[in-house]
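Anyone up for a design puzzle?
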């Protein structure tokens, strides 16, 4: 027997603990530490029990660091009974009577004669109890061998240490004669089994049988619950099996919500929640209409592709609200383990189901709206490819029997409406992209941003900051200034943050006005009547922050104009610099597409004496470098035709001449073929000495023969040019069909030039044209 002593003084308590009573075959003698632990099971022991166990100290091991702690190894000898307590201090001393003979357990034959058939029957019951456990566990196998090797009369003591009983019950067993303990133990075990009928395992089995899970899942769960009953709770597998069964019960196998299929109400709800996005809302209404005609329609796999801040995630939430379904968002950005999708196998420690099954458990129904956010940012690692794991999830022909590794049974996902979001399709694997219906969500025009701001963003910010329309007014002209001078984005996230900054500044003024305790006198009132908290167009008007020193509270509502914007948001971040950049030859404006939306891109060129080398800077990709080489080759082959010469007057543009092409914003990686026409125009401007029109932007791929090929992202590029204040856009002829997606008010503000060859591009990019005819006319006019 082994006991722990936490201080040298408690070594004296060991002798007292020997009187506390424990079985002769027990393994531990409890020692109460200096401070009583209210949760300890030793608290239910009496101060001194009548029956105890005598023991022989065999070994004492311990140390004084970091605190005194000792372990005492003792061997039990026999039971004794206290006759009289002689003294209690410094340690208890008593007159005792020996109850058992030391040689009693050495004479096995005589003991077996006394116990007779009762001992053998008890042995059989003990063996049956142990064999119900998992024999593959080393501790269980060792206990089975111990039953065969121990004397029969020692079995009651062994069983007492196994059964979950209190110390009081163990003391009752130690007080009984060994020959009578066999009769006492079965009654205790019977009481224990009766309590198990009301255990949680029984309730869990009832839930499994009454659940609506599939036949395959029910069969697996019943098999697992049978194994669970045979396991001791101390086994690690017990908790894993129980968690698995509880998850199986909680999953919504047949529980679903009924869709609201009123098309008119859905249209009104979508229009109220989101401005513009006509193409997207049309597709949602089509789904509702088909679902109304066919109830068993499988859920479509939609993928909203567009720049950040255009409302892709909020549209998914609105769709769930429109249908009356539960909504669950799964963030996939940075996920690089396929177990996040399919789950872990239950053989691993800490295994858990994948995010799909966890989402169904959270939603509580089998037909929620699942938003797979940032599906284009999935990673890949040694743990597998999560994009490949999504192939089964997002395939309507396969997901009716989706098998999670943790569940290891099929679950029907065919009624789930999956909506994925992405900024670009370039990083989505082709196999996964093929399983989704792509719906482009482009950026907003300035007019759409103004409407969104006054319909949704400003009311939301007023509510978040505790303001009312009677306290602050933001005119549409001010909103336009914020959009054009303080933000340059496809979405409205930066616009929302700027509006929040304005509301915070106004909230400070309103709070200061409400907490002024001193009242101004009449002279101050008369003097301050004309001092309104209205920011006029006069640049000398005091800012909102300066009015904190006024004695009077601000007059409501506080009007925000351009001067107030400068006081709150600082100087404008974006100024129209197009005309300044195009004030010398060798500069042209291109249009680029990025995951954040369309952008205008300046291309600059210069020439100097050299050896005919072409230098490219600005973090260019291989495709853009090839476009630059194509452009210079085409110009060299047509230099005589367009009268293009180098500094020495030679038609060989690279003769003793080096050319440097630079794409500003060098920290940003650039690639793609759509800059071909811009590079040609930039070099033509450089060698001809003519300026490119300052209101022209262009995009298109070129060939070595001078053809202009179509490119993608036309709508985002056009919106970027419109935001920058450009008026004329050159696009490939075959991209004319893409203009139908652009709002009518934007098309009316712009002039589009459809070009099928580089001759048409150069004629549109320069005032007076750039063809041979125009060059001859220009030369004649000079003569």
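Challenge accepted. My sequence:
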């Amino acid at each position: 027997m082994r006991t722990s002593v936490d201080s040298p003084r408690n070594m004296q308590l060991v002798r007292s603990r020997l009187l506390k009573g424990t079985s002769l075959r027990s393994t531990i003698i409890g020692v109460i530490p200096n401070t009583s632990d209210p949760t300890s099971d030793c608290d239910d022991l009496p101060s001194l029990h009548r029956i105890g166990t005598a023991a022989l100290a065999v070994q004492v091991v311990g140390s004084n660091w970091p605190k005194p702690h000792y372990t005492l190894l003792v061997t039990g000898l026999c039971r004794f009974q206290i006759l009289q307590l002689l003294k209690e201090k410094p340690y208890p001393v008593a007159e005792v009577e020996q109850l058992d003979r030391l040689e009693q357990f050495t004479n096995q034959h005589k003991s077996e004669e006394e116990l007779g058939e009762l001992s053998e029957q008890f042995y059989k019951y003990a063996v049956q109890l142990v064999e119900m456990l998992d024999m593959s566990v080393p501790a269980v196998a060792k206990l089975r061998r111990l039953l065969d090797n121990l004397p029969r009369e020692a079995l009651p003591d062994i069983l007492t240490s196994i059964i979950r009983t209190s110390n009081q019950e163990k003391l009752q067993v130690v007080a009984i004669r060994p020959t009578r303990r066999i009769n006492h133990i079965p009654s205790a075990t019977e009481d224990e089994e009766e309590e198990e009928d009301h255990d949680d395992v029984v309730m869990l089995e009832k839930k499994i049988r009454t659940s609506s899970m599939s036949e395959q899942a029910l069969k697996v769960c019943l098999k697992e619950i049978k194994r669970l009953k045979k396991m001791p709770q101390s086994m690690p597998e017990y908790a894993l099996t129980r968690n698995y069964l509880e998850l199986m019960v909680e999953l919504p196998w047949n529980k679903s919500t009924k869709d609201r299929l009123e098309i008119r109400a859905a249209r009104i709800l979508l229009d109220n929640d989101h401005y513009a996005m006509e193409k997207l809302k049309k597709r949602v209404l089509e789904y509702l209409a088909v679902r109304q005609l066919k109830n068993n329609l499988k859920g479509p796999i939609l993928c909203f592709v567009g720049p950040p801040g255009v409302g892709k995630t909020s549209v998914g939430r609105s769709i769930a609200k429109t249908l009356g379904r539960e909504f669950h968002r799964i963030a996939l950005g940075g996920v690089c383990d396929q177990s996040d999708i399919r789950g872990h196998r239950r053989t691993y420690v800490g295994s858990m189901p994948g995010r799909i099954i966890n989402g169904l458990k959270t939603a509580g129904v089998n037909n929620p709206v699942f938003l797979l956010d940032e599906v284009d940012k999935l990673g890949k690692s040694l743990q597998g490819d999560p994009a490949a794991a999504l192939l089964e999830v997002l395939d309507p022909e396969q997901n009716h029997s989706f098998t999670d590794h943790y569940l290891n049974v099929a679950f029907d996902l065919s009624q789930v409406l999956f909506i994925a979001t992405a900024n670009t399709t370039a990083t989505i694997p082709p196999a996964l992209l093929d399983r989704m219906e792509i719906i482009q969500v482009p950026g907003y025009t300035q007019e759409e941003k103004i409407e969104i701001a006054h319909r949704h963003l400003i009311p939301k910010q007023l509510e978040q900051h505790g303001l009312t329309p009677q306290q602050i007014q933001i005119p549409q002209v001010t909103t336009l200034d914020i959009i054009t001078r303080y933000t340059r984005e496809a979405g409205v996230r930066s616009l929302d943050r700027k509006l929040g900054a304005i509301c915070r500044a106004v909230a400070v003024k309103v709070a200061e006005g409400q907490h002024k305790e001193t009242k101004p006198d009449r002279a101050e009132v008369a003097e301050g009547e004309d001092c309104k908290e209205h920011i006029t167009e006069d640049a000398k008007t005091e800012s909102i922050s300066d009015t904190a020193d006024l004695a009077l509270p601000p007059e409501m509502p506080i009007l925000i104009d351009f001067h107030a914007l400068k006081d709150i948001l600082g100087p404008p971040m974006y100024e129209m610099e197009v005309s300044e950049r195009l004030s010398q030859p060798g500069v042209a404006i291109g249009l680029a597409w990025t995951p954040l939306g369309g952008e205008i891109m300046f291309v600059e060129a210069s020439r100097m004496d050299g050896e005919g080398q072409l230098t490219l800077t600005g973090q260019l990709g291989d495709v853009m470098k090839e476009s630059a080489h194509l452009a210079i080759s085409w110009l060299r082959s047509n230099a005589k035709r367009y009268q293009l010469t180098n500094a020495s007057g030679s038609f060989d543009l690279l003769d003793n001449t080096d050319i440097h092409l630079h794409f500003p914003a060098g920290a940003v990686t650039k690639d793609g073929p759509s800059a071909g026409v811009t590079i040609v125009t930039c070099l033509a401007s450089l060698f001809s000495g003519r300026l490119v029109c300052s209101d022209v932007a262009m995009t298109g791929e070129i060939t070595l023969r001078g053809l202009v090929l179509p490119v993608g992202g036309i709508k985002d590029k056009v919106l970027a040019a419109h935001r920058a204040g450009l008026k004329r856009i050159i696009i490939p002829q075959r991209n004319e069909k893409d203009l139908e997606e652009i709002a009518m008010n934007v098309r009316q503000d712009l002039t589009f030039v459809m070009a099928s060859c580089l001759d048409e591009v150069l004629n549109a990019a320069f005032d007076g044209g750039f063809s041979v005819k125009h060059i001859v006319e220009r030369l004649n006019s000079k003569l």
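A detail worth pointing out: The chain has a mean pLDDT of 80.
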